[in-house]
Amino acid sequence: MLRLLLINPSNEHKGLGNIKATAWPPLNLPYLAAVTPEHYQIEIIDEGVEPFLFREADIVGITAFTSSVNRAYQIAQIYKKKGIPTVMGGIHVSMMPEEALLFCDAVVVGEAEGVWPQLLKDFEAGHLQRQYHGSWADLKDLPEPRRDLLHKHHYRWGSLLTSRGCPMNCSFCSVTAFNGRRFRRRPLDSVIKELKKIPQKMVVLTDDNIIGYGQRDRDWAYAFFSRIVEEGIKKYFFTQVSILFGEDKDLIRMAAKAGVKIVFIGLESINPKTLKSYNKEQNLRELSHDCYPDLIHNIRKEGIAFLGAFVLGGDEDDRTVFHPTLEFIKSSGIDVLQISKPTPLPGTQLWETLQREGRILDQKFPEAWDEYRLTKLVFKPKQMSIEEVYEGFTYLRKIFYSRTETLKRTVNTLLTTKSLVATLISYKFNASYRRGFLSSDHYKKYNRPGLESRFIP
């Protein structure tokens, strides 16, 4: 049998937090394994939960985000130097294929499942091509991912995909460039069938927005959650939705009944100018009508915790953005906080704009990609110094993650959601982010006397 090794590399900094409480299996490599012919012996290494150790192989496939691509290049070189054909794919490689080809033998641009069998045929015939271009396939033919190849004991959460693509085009997001602007759903029956096979009690729905982008998509989501209830599937779910989820009370109730315990929602900012610059039109509408607090409350009162994500430090922000954002987070009842910096990932509008304006600070690529992990600023915003942004992040997170605020927030989560499970999940997520913050360069460098006085009016 031919030996295929599939690798998911990890940036050593791990980005936004400690992975132990939130680890779930990547699905991209198990999907590739599912369309691999039977005469291959397949092994998957996920460096997010286990260290990479050299394994013998006949062909190697490596995926990578921008933040982990240098690690991917390092591993690719190990195999390439031994004469073992090495293929790379994923979002970063799809946006920067010529760069990736400096380190590997072949690249896949776009979704790989449709071209992977042909790539392997070419490999076996001895004429592997330099580039393969995958299409945005109809998901009705998507096979079940090979979860049996993953080391299940590493993951507290299972993972399940029901859709791909996004018609929105947020300026800092590369999903549209990679998965297309057309929202594609899998057939409901196949999703339910696959869900029943996932061994973990807790499951992440990996969709960028499980409720989709119109009434037809909301109806699908309602039917999905209804089937979970009807068939007695007893699991807890973490999923990503848009803020519009808070408008549909019937859908919220059904999702809660099905076991949804926490939702990730990108609020991004409470600065209207920033939302406009991010192309977050639906968020801007809700914010301008002062709907955020009510929509958050609608979700939490049904027993679902709210993970609010913010992207602070853009060109429309100044140093006054941090304190009002903190006050909003505290007053609105957000249970878990994720804040990141606007990062110009290749393929995004933000990347194109900053490159055109010559504002990317470190152009020494690929080495500079290590800084593209959402916690570093790789350009100077128009209204703040980089140091002011780092100080503002330190100020906001120092207060949010303080013991007093954590205790108050945990009690509030329990009293509002009336769900011990949602409260425990929220607490663990916050603890993960807190550990990441306390071990960060930000905390070590900018947590100095008088920090609060620089931001409190």
Brief rundown of the structure:
The protein is α/β, with parallel strands linked by helices.
Number of strands: 14
Name the helicity range: 25-40%
Which stretches of 5+ consecutive residues score pLDDT under 50? none
Q: Compute the gyration radius: what is it?
A: 22 Å
CATH structural architecture of the largest domain: Alpha-Beta Horseshoe
Shape: globular
Strands ordered across the widest β-sheet: 2-1-3-4-5-6
Strand percentage? 5-15%
Measured distance between first and last alpha carbons: 68 Å
Q: Can you identify the CATH superfamily of the largest domain?
A: tm_1862 like domain
Number of domains: 2
What is the CATH fold-level name of the largest domain?
pyruvate-formate lyase- activating enzyme
Query: Helices and strands: which structural class?
Result: alpha/beta
CATH domain class name of the largest domain? Alpha Beta
Mean pLDDT: 93
What does it look like?
Helix 2 (69-81) links the parallel strand 3 (59-63) and strand 4 (86-89). The chain has helices spanning 28-34, 69-81, 91-95, 97-100, 116-125, 175-179, 188-197, 215-230, 249-258, 272-277, 281-288, 292-300, 322-332, 349-356, 386-400, 403-417, 420-438, 441-446, and strands spanning 2-8, 40-46, 59-63, 86-89, 106-109, 131-133, 157-160, 163-164, 184-185, 202-205, 236-240, 260-268, 305-311, 336-340. By secondary structure, it is an alpha/beta fold. Helix content is 39%, strand content 15%. The model has no long low-confidence stretch (mean pLDDT 93). The protein folds into two domains: 2-133, 3-Layer(aba) Sandwich (Rossmann fold), CATH 3.40.50; 156-342 and 381-454, tm_1862 like domain (pyruvate-formate lyase- activating enzyme, Alpha-Beta Horseshoe). The protein is globular, with a radius of gyration of 22 Å. The strands form three sheets. It has a six-stranded parallel beta sheet, with helices on both faces. A six-stranded parallel beta sheet has the order 7-10-11-12-13-14.
